[in-house]
Amino acid sequence: MNIDILGISVLWIFLWGYIIVASIDFGAGFFGFYSVATGKKHITYAIIERYLSPVWEVTNVFLVFFYIGMVGFFPDTAMYYGTALLVPGSLALILLSIRGAYYAFSNYGSKQNVWYMFLYGATGLLIPAALSTVLVISEGGIIQVIEGKIVLLWSELFSSLYTWSVILLALVSVLYISAMFLTYYAHKAKDKPAYMILRGYALFWSLPTILASLFAFYAISQHNKEHFNNMLSLSWMFIASFICFAIAVFFVWKGRNLGLSFIMVMLQFGFAFFGYGRAHLPYILYPYITIREHFTNETMAIALVAAFIAGLFVLIPSIVLLLRLFLFDAAYVRGTKNKKGGKGSYGK
Amino acid sequence: MTAMYDAVSYSRLLTEITLGFHIIFATIGVGVPVMIALAEWRGIKRNDPYYILLARRWTRGFVITVAIGVVTGTSIGLQLSLLWPSFMQVAGQAIGLPLFMETFAFFVEAIFLGIYLYTWDRFKNPFVHFMLIIPIALAASASAFFITCVNAFMNTPQGFTLENGVIRNVEPIKAMFNPATATKVSHVLSSAYMTCAFVLAAIAAFSLIKGRSDKVYARKALKLTLVAGIIFGITNALIGDFSGKFLAAYQPVKLAAAEWHFETKDKAELIMGGFLTEDNEIKYALKIPYALSILAGGSPNTVVHGLNETPPELQPPLRIHYYFDGMVLIGTLTIAIGVVYLWFSRAKRKKPLPRWLLIAIVCCGPLSVIAIELGWIYAEVGRLPWILVGYMKVEDGATTANNVHIMLLLFCLLYLVLAISCIKVLAKLFRNAHVADELLSLGIEGGKRK
């Protein structure tokens, strides 16, 4: 395998990881706020909080990792995307900042503050919309180089059908992925009332997810024929994605094998996402940046791959530890373990 | 509009504000885990629940500051590409390695912070929980290390050649370990540890003045933090001296501008305070003979490079003198106050500390943070007009986009809101949780461990 393919694969895996963990996080924030706003807080909120609390910071790292890796492996992306994304990128950053900070404020500081929770929930839906515009831009036609200056064409961005299809897909997938995960988590916690509500959400959002995917397919055929044709030649990946979706929803509907069901959700998005990415190659930014011509120099690439492998040796055990302590620890999931020593048991 | 649009100034201002804001929380993020580790370790070793409580309470406030540190850190990371795309194109090729490794450190810190927070009472052996703070402290310092490597590279770039804007012959390790790395990293780390010790000491002194907190608890906190503060402070001052020697050897222009040293000569005097008239005359300054030569090379005979040898358009602004003086003054003052405290707490062990001393210690907290800001402004402004010294000017690195001023406004608003909320949340967190109640719940003063 060529080192440039290796580089983009590593980055793509991290982006896929980000989509899964961030979707859980973004959607959970929204469901959390929704449960408070509709007076169902007592039923579902504890489940959501118990999962989110120990991992809130990790989600952000996936994004930073992807971004830094991108600049490291493909430095020219910094030039093109950096210039073009000033406004959408800054807006996404501001939303991410509000979200991250107010999660901590509401969870570790001022409990019960509905305003903080609202900020957290609302940004959870706006961020995926803002971030997904990057995918649109990468398809070409949105960035143009005029007299040596890189310019983002706003009118093109907002008049493109593809833009809206991607934003729609991002929104519904966030709610779908999140609800599917929380259903599994509530089931593990043996929290029947929460499980029933979350299962309802999961089933409710499954149909829009598939419809939005089809819509995105159609939109890309209008926007970038070449990419669409490449996707058609990889159609087995998208079929596999649909089969995974069907299995996942079937299990949730039947109410069994929920762990497997969530793995199927991950595969569903994995197949679609890698199919989409592979069809897009060799372009990172159509038609300006390709993975071969705009790859970093050889020495840096080798150094980065070496650092990456060394990093995995630290990262994987750490993540396994985190999962074992909080995701696969039955007592913690059920909430019977003293979960928040850091808060002390004062005032009780 | 495009012809007149000054994207460079807006980009600079936005970067300055973001970094200035982030650096406060970044410093806390690097130093406080070390202090938490010290307190928890002492608490376990001596079986003293006061120290355990100290670690717990610090941690609780720490999480709030980490949240802001993370989000502002993400902002500055991405802003580098959004505001300085041509710089990042070069940096990505030459210095991508430490940037990349920094995210690993960040990852480890994020994971273990989550674990540490939620496992206080989960292990029978208290050492197991203590072990969890170690990766946090190490990873926090490691990420400071890696990111400071990038900054050091901007000051003394090496490990590549630039031909007509194309980078060749990249040596990632050489770029990372450039001449500025050693002194910069060690100064950043030691100043962060020192600052956090003094900030936490200020909180302890404040609660002693207010009389709200448990006295024994607050005095133990004060002792731990100030002893640590003095040790880190002295280390920091020594490293600062090395930094002076480094500057004399590799960035003489920065040192000369900071010291208003115009003529190249030996037996150079160090200038403290004062101000500069329009025709570069120094007024009302304290001049210490030979001191600059000693700072620069360890001997009064060291020849110190003067500013006049650099063409005016390549000179940094001369106001950096004030930042340098401010930083050194505060550093010295805080160590001195720490030493005075030691004297009082030894000689009159049983008596309460005098009120004026406590007030002085409270002042040390914000002063230390100001010193960090001054030091960074000095280091960064002292590199002007370069973004990559000798390779790329600041105006060539900036974005060509047109909406920077709106983003500047939005980010200012964001930081303002974050700052207010942070203060509000922290104040509420500690006002509602009285030390006495918490001590009781930890099994002190007749209470039973719950």
From TrEMBL, chain A:
UniProt keywords, alphabetically: Cell membrane, Membrane, Transmembrane, Transmembrane helix
Transcription regulation found in the keyword field: no
Pfam families the record matches: Cyt_bd_oxida_II
Localization annotation: Cell membrane
GO cellular component: plasma membrane
Transmembrane segments: 12-34, 55-74, 80-102, 114-137, 161-186, 198-220, 232-253, 260-279, 299-327
InterPro entries for the chain: Cyt-d_oxidase_su2
Membrane topology: Multi-pass membrane protein
Family: Belongs to the cytochrome ubiquinol oxidase subunit 2 family.
UniProt protein name: Cytochrome d ubiquinol oxidase subunit II
Organism whose genome encodes this protein: Paenibacillus albiflavus
Lineage: Bacteria, Bacillati, Bacillota, Bacilli, Bacillales
TrEMBL record, chain B:
A biological-process GO annotation: aerobic electron transport chain
Keywords from the UniProt entry: Cell membrane, Electron transport, Heme, Iron, Membrane, Metal-binding, Transmembrane, Transmembrane helix, Transport
Coiled-coil annotated residue ranges, if any: none
Compartments reported by the entry: Cell membrane
Transmembrane segments: 20-41, 62-83, 95-118, 130-154, 188-209, 221-239, 320-344, 356-379, 406-427
A Pfam family that the UniProt record links to this protein: Cyt_bd_oxida_I
GO cellular component, one term: cytochrome complex
InterPro entries xrefs: Cyt-d_ubiquinol_oxidase_su_1 (IPR002585)
Membrane-topology descriptor: Multi-pass membrane protein
Similarity section: Belongs to the cytochrome ubiquinol oxidase subunit 1 family.
Protein name as it appears in the record: Cytochrome ubiquinol oxidase subunit I
